Amino acid sequence: MYYINENIKNLYRIFDQNSRDGYLRLDLNENPVGLPQEFIDEVLSKVTPEFVAKYPEQLEFTKKLAKFIGVEVENICLVNGSAEGIRYIIQAYSRPGGKVLSVSPSYAMYDVYCEMYGRESVHVYYDENLEMDVQDIIDAINDDIDLVIILNPNNPVGDVYTYDEMDNILEACKKHECTLLIDEAYFYYYPNSFIKYAIENDHVLLTRTFSKVFSLAGGRLGYVVGKKYDVEIVQKLATPHNVNAFGMAFAQALIEKDGMIDELVEKQLTGKQHLIDTLQEKGYCVSAKEGNFIFIKPKHLDAESIVKQMKEEKKILIKVYKDIPDLGDCLRVSIGESEVMDIFIEALEDIDQ
Hints:
Helix content is 41%, strand content 18%. It has helices spanning 6-9, 37-44, 49-53, 59-69, 82-93, 109-116, 134-140, 163-175, 195-200, 228-237, 245-256, 260-281, 303-314, 338-351, and strands at residues 24-25, 76-79, 99-104, 120-125, 145-151, 179-183, 204-209, 222-225, 285-287, 293-297, 316-317, 319-324, 328-334. A 7-stranded mixed β-sheet has the order 2-8-7-6-5-3-4, with helices on both faces. A 4-stranded antiparallel β-sheet has the order 9-10-13-12, with helices on one face. A two-stranded parallel sheet has the order 1-11.
């Protein structure tokens, strides 16, 4: 009899294969402008036939990355986007039928991977004001929990955790022997990092990505940080040559180019504040915490109509989020440089009248 894994058979997934070329992309937390063309050209000028033909070699880049973030090579496992690292950690640090604790709403792939591997997702929910009492997370950690996942800043809410709060979460994880995963996908938009927790404690792992402020979503590159033994566990799940040479080449060039990363961060955060200030001056209600996204309450039309018209008439991609406190059904917009934000603001004013 043919066999199909029931977890996979019954797994609900959405794969959007629509082309986004030619649109202003403010829907998936990417950098809508991307890296400067001259920088792209500079990196590609070093690509040779041998570079393309051979399997990617990770050691040189891993050494550069380790120095850049202040850890040792043994503390890093490269992955194909941080989502792959999260998948490996759920697979390795929770048992079949075991429980994985996270807050809700948060990154949807936590639940997808749990269902994929036959784990049970356990959620601590935000209250009606989209606020989280960290004590609720701590109270939910018990001997039945295998893995606790904390996204900081959280997506989509944008809230963050203090060091005292993370200390208390870690203490609860140690008490009940739960592995702790700290997801720092949006770290550079709020540089309060918990990386030391991962390199100083067993069973604490941290993930980061090059898809957000580094503007390399197409390069599919991320990494896991932890103590040597934990990193080795994650590494065992990785496929051979799991990260591509182009992603590493661009990431290494970014790390080595003086001021490049600081400039990317500054442009994004300046654009975010410009968007917030301008919308508020125009009478819009805005909810903006940390991360590279904000919520906007329309003034006249409903959010779904605006999203549709933005795509069809303005070639701008944004999202609808429902039931946001004080905003109701609202727009969810990724940030970009000030010039890009002006394009969005002009389009919004034209449609929402």
